[in-house]
Amino acid sequence: MTNSLAIIGGGISGTLTVLQIIKQSKSPISILWFDTQNKYGKGYAYNTFDEHHLLNVRANNMSVFPDDPDHFINWLQTKNVNYSAKDFISRRLFGEYVSNTLETLKHTNSNVTVEQITEEVVAIDQEGEMFRIKTHQTYTVKKVVLALGNFLPAHPKSISTEFISSKYYFQNAFNVQLTNQIQSHQNITIIGSGLTMIDMIVSLARFNYKGKIQVISPHAYIPQAHQDNPLPSVDGFIDGKKKYTLLQIVALVNQQIKLAKTQNLNVHSVIDTMRPHLQTLWLNFSLSEKQQFLRHLRHKWGVARHRAPSQSMAVFNELQASVQLTLTKGRIFDIKTVGPKFDIYYNTTQKTNQVLHTELIINCTGPESNYDKVPSGLIKYLISNQIIVPDPIKYGIDAQKDGCIIKNMYTLGPPLKGILWESVAVPEIRVQARDLAAKIIFD
Question: What's this model's pTM, rounded to 2 decimal places?
Answer without folding.
Answer: 0.95
